[in-house]
Design a protein that fits this description.
The structure is a single chain. By secondary structure, the protein is of the alpha+beta class. The chain has a single domain, classed as Immunoglobulin-like (Sandwich). The protein is about 15% helix and about 35% strand. Strands 4, 5, 6, 8, 10 and 11 form a six-stranded antiparallel β-sheet that branches. It is elongated. The N and C termini lie far apart (about 105 Å).
Length: about 210
Protein backbone atom coordinates (compact mmCIF):
# COMPACT_ATOMS: atom_id res chain seq x y z
CA UNK A 1 0.00 0.00 0.00
CA UNK A 2 1.43 3.39 -1.07
CA UNK A 3 2.35 5.78 1.69
CA UNK A 4 0.98 9.29 1.71
CA UNK A 5 3.53 12.05 2.07
CA UNK A 6 0.87 14.40 3.41
CA UNK A 7 -2.01 13.52 5.66
CA UNK A 8 -4.42 16.44 5.58
CA UNK A 9 -7.37 16.08 7.86
CA UNK A 10 -10.56 17.83 6.97
CA UNK A 11 -10.91 19.34 10.41
CA UNK A 12 -11.22 22.96 11.45
CA UNK A 13 -11.41 23.73 15.14
CA UNK A 14 -10.76 26.48 17.67
CA UNK A 15 -6.98 26.17 17.35
CA UNK A 16 -7.09 26.88 13.63
CA UNK A 17 -9.54 29.76 14.09
CA UNK A 18 -7.35 31.35 16.75
CA UNK A 19 -4.31 31.01 14.49
CA UNK A 20 -6.06 32.77 11.60
CA UNK A 21 -7.34 35.57 13.84
CA UNK A 22 -3.85 36.03 15.29
CA UNK A 23 -2.41 36.23 11.76
CA UNK A 24 -4.98 38.86 10.73
CA UNK A 25 -4.32 40.92 13.85
CA UNK A 26 -0.57 40.75 13.26
CA UNK A 27 -1.00 41.96 9.70
CA UNK A 28 -3.31 44.76 10.81
CA UNK A 29 -0.83 45.81 13.48
CA UNK A 30 1.98 46.00 10.91
CA UNK A 31 -0.23 47.99 8.55
CA UNK A 32 -1.19 50.51 11.27
CA UNK A 33 2.41 50.81 12.43
CA UNK A 34 3.63 51.40 8.87
CA UNK A 35 1.04 54.05 8.11
CA UNK A 36 1.37 55.79 11.46
CA UNK A 37 5.00 56.53 10.60
CA UNK A 38 4.27 57.95 7.16
CA UNK A 39 4.52 61.56 6.11
CA UNK A 40 1.39 62.76 4.36
CA UNK A 41 0.38 66.23 3.20
CA UNK A 42 -2.84 67.78 1.99
CA UNK A 43 -3.08 70.84 -0.23
CA UNK A 44 -5.65 73.61 -0.59
CA UNK A 45 -5.39 76.00 -3.55
CA UNK A 46 -6.87 79.46 -3.20
CA UNK A 47 -8.41 81.36 -6.08
CA UNK A 48 -6.08 83.31 -8.32
CA UNK A 49 -5.99 86.99 -7.37
CA UNK A 50 -5.04 89.23 -10.27
CA UNK A 51 -4.78 92.78 -11.49
CA UNK A 52 -3.51 94.73 -14.48
CA UNK A 53 -0.91 97.35 -13.64
CA UNK A 54 1.41 99.75 -15.42
CA UNK A 55 5.07 98.82 -15.05
CA UNK A 56 8.07 101.14 -14.76
CA UNK A 57 8.41 101.15 -18.55
CA UNK A 58 4.81 102.43 -18.92
CA UNK A 59 3.57 99.12 -20.34
CA UNK A 60 0.62 97.17 -19.01
CA UNK A 61 1.36 93.87 -17.29
CA UNK A 62 -0.87 91.17 -15.83
CA UNK A 63 -0.11 90.18 -12.23
CA UNK A 64 -1.38 86.92 -10.77
CA UNK A 65 -1.12 85.81 -7.15
CA UNK A 66 -1.85 82.29 -5.97
CA UNK A 67 -1.59 80.80 -2.50
CA UNK A 68 -1.38 77.16 -1.48
CA UNK A 69 -1.95 75.96 2.09
CA UNK A 70 0.01 72.78 2.82
CA UNK A 71 -0.83 70.70 5.88
CA UNK A 72 1.32 67.82 7.10
CA UNK A 73 -1.27 65.41 8.51
CA UNK A 74 1.18 62.54 8.94
CA UNK A 75 3.51 61.65 11.78
CA UNK A 76 6.83 62.35 10.11
CA UNK A 77 8.44 65.52 8.74
CA UNK A 78 8.10 66.01 5.00
CA UNK A 79 10.04 68.36 2.74
CA UNK A 80 8.48 70.50 0.03
CA UNK A 81 11.18 69.95 -2.57
CA UNK A 82 9.90 72.53 -4.99
CA UNK A 83 7.68 73.59 -7.84
CA UNK A 84 7.61 71.98 -11.29
CA UNK A 85 5.57 72.64 -14.43
CA UNK A 86 2.69 70.23 -14.80
CA UNK A 87 3.63 67.53 -17.30
CA UNK A 88 0.42 67.92 -19.33
CA UNK A 89 -0.64 71.53 -18.96
CA UNK A 90 2.67 73.29 -18.60
CA UNK A 91 3.18 76.48 -16.64
CA UNK A 92 0.72 78.69 -18.51
CA UNK A 93 -2.02 78.17 -21.04
CA UNK A 94 -4.03 80.94 -22.62
CA UNK A 95 -7.52 80.79 -24.07
CA UNK A 96 -7.72 83.06 -27.12
CA UNK A 97 -10.86 85.04 -27.84
CA UNK A 98 -13.00 83.58 -30.58
CA UNK A 99 -11.74 80.04 -30.10
CA UNK A 100 -13.01 77.03 -28.21
CA UNK A 101 -9.48 75.78 -27.65
CA UNK A 102 -6.61 76.42 -25.29
CA UNK A 103 -3.71 77.89 -27.19
CA UNK A 104 -0.32 77.18 -25.63
CA UNK A 105 1.51 80.39 -26.27
CA UNK A 106 4.95 81.62 -25.28
CA UNK A 107 4.50 84.78 -23.24
CA UNK A 108 7.16 86.68 -21.35
CA UNK A 109 6.61 85.80 -17.74
CA UNK A 110 8.22 86.39 -14.37
CA UNK A 111 7.54 83.96 -11.54
CA UNK A 112 8.61 84.46 -7.95
CA UNK A 113 7.94 83.44 -4.37
CA UNK A 114 6.32 86.16 -2.28
CA UNK A 115 7.28 86.37 1.43
CA UNK A 116 4.37 85.36 3.65
CA UNK A 117 4.80 88.64 5.56
CA UNK A 118 3.38 90.51 2.56
CA UNK A 119 -0.41 90.48 2.50
CA UNK A 120 -2.26 90.31 -0.80
CA UNK A 121 -4.21 93.48 0.05
CA UNK A 122 -0.94 95.35 0.40
CA UNK A 123 0.30 93.98 -2.91
CA UNK A 124 -2.73 95.25 -4.78
CA UNK A 125 -2.99 98.59 -3.00
CA UNK A 126 -0.48 100.21 -5.37
CA UNK A 127 1.07 99.15 -8.66
CA UNK A 128 4.46 100.28 -7.33
CA UNK A 129 4.37 97.32 -4.94
CA UNK A 130 4.70 95.02 -7.95
CA UNK A 131 7.66 96.72 -9.58
CA UNK A 132 10.54 95.30 -7.57
CA UNK A 133 9.87 91.57 -7.68
CA UNK A 134 12.68 89.73 -9.45
CA UNK A 135 12.19 86.65 -11.58
CA UNK A 136 13.09 83.54 -9.54
CA UNK A 137 12.55 81.27 -12.51
CA UNK A 138 11.29 77.69 -12.37
CA UNK A 139 14.80 76.37 -11.80
CA UNK A 140 15.16 78.18 -8.49
CA UNK A 141 11.58 77.45 -7.41
CA UNK A 142 12.29 73.78 -8.06
CA UNK A 143 14.57 73.67 -4.99
CA UNK A 144 12.52 75.31 -2.22
CA UNK A 145 13.42 72.53 0.26
CA UNK A 146 11.06 73.61 3.04
CA UNK A 147 10.70 71.09 5.89
CA UNK A 148 7.10 70.79 7.20
CA UNK A 149 6.83 69.05 10.56
CA UNK A 150 3.89 66.84 11.64
CA UNK A 151 0.80 68.93 12.34
CA UNK A 152 2.43 72.01 10.80
CA UNK A 153 0.80 74.19 8.15
CA UNK A 154 2.93 75.98 5.56
CA UNK A 155 1.61 78.59 3.15
CA UNK A 156 3.26 79.02 -0.23
CA UNK A 157 2.77 82.35 -2.00
CA UNK A 158 3.60 82.52 -5.71
CA UNK A 159 3.38 85.61 -7.90
CA UNK A 160 3.51 85.85 -11.68
CA UNK A 161 3.78 88.79 -14.05
CA UNK A 162 2.79 88.22 -17.68
CA UNK A 163 3.44 90.53 -20.60
CA UNK A 164 0.05 89.82 -22.18
CA UNK A 165 -0.30 93.14 -23.93
CA UNK A 166 2.91 93.35 -25.97
CA UNK A 167 0.98 92.21 -29.04
CA UNK A 168 -2.04 94.49 -29.61
CA UNK A 169 -3.46 92.08 -32.19
CA UNK A 170 -3.74 89.28 -29.68
CA UNK A 171 -6.58 89.18 -27.17
CA UNK A 172 -6.30 86.81 -24.23
CA UNK A 173 -9.37 85.94 -22.20
CA UNK A 174 -8.06 83.44 -19.67
CA UNK A 175 -4.77 82.70 -17.99
CA UNK A 176 -4.37 79.26 -16.40
CA UNK A 177 -1.46 78.67 -14.07
CA UNK A 178 -0.69 74.99 -13.49
CA UNK A 179 2.23 73.31 -11.80
CA UNK A 180 3.00 70.55 -9.34
CA UNK A 181 4.39 70.63 -5.83
CA UNK A 182 6.90 67.83 -5.27
CA UNK A 183 7.40 66.37 -1.79
CA UNK A 184 10.08 64.15 -0.25
CA UNK A 185 7.56 61.37 0.50
CA UNK A 186 6.81 60.98 -3.21
CA UNK A 187 3.58 62.99 -3.31
CA UNK A 188 2.99 65.22 -6.33
CA UNK A 189 0.08 67.62 -5.86
CA UNK A 190 -1.44 69.88 -8.50
CA UNK A 191 -0.97 73.55 -7.67
CA UNK A 192 -2.91 75.89 -9.91
CA UNK A 193 -5.67 78.38 -10.61
CA UNK A 194 -7.16 80.39 -13.46
CA UNK A 195 -8.38 83.89 -14.21
CA UNK A 196 -10.95 84.49 -16.92
CA UNK A 197 -11.41 88.24 -16.48
CA UNK A 198 -8.56 89.81 -18.38
CA UNK A 199 -9.29 93.39 -19.51
CA UNK A 200 -8.70 94.17 -23.17
CA UNK A 201 -5.75 96.49 -22.60
CA UNK A 202 -2.92 96.88 -25.09
CA UNK A 203 0.59 98.24 -24.78
CA UNK A 204 -0.65 101.58 -26.01
CA UNK A 205 -3.04 101.78 -23.10
CA UNK A 206 -6.24 101.52 -25.11
CA UNK A 207 -9.36 99.79 -23.81
Amino acid sequence: MAKRFFNIKKEFGWAELISIVALILAGLSLYIQYNSNKAFVTLHNDKLISTVFMDKDSTYKFFGYIRATINNTGNKPVTLLGLQPHEKLGLILTAVEGGEYLDKDEIKCKIFQIPDTILSDRLLSSEKNLWDFKDDGMERLGVINKVINPGEVYTLHIGTVYDLFSNPNRRYTTVIFNSELIFSNGQRLLFGAADANIPAYTNAGKK
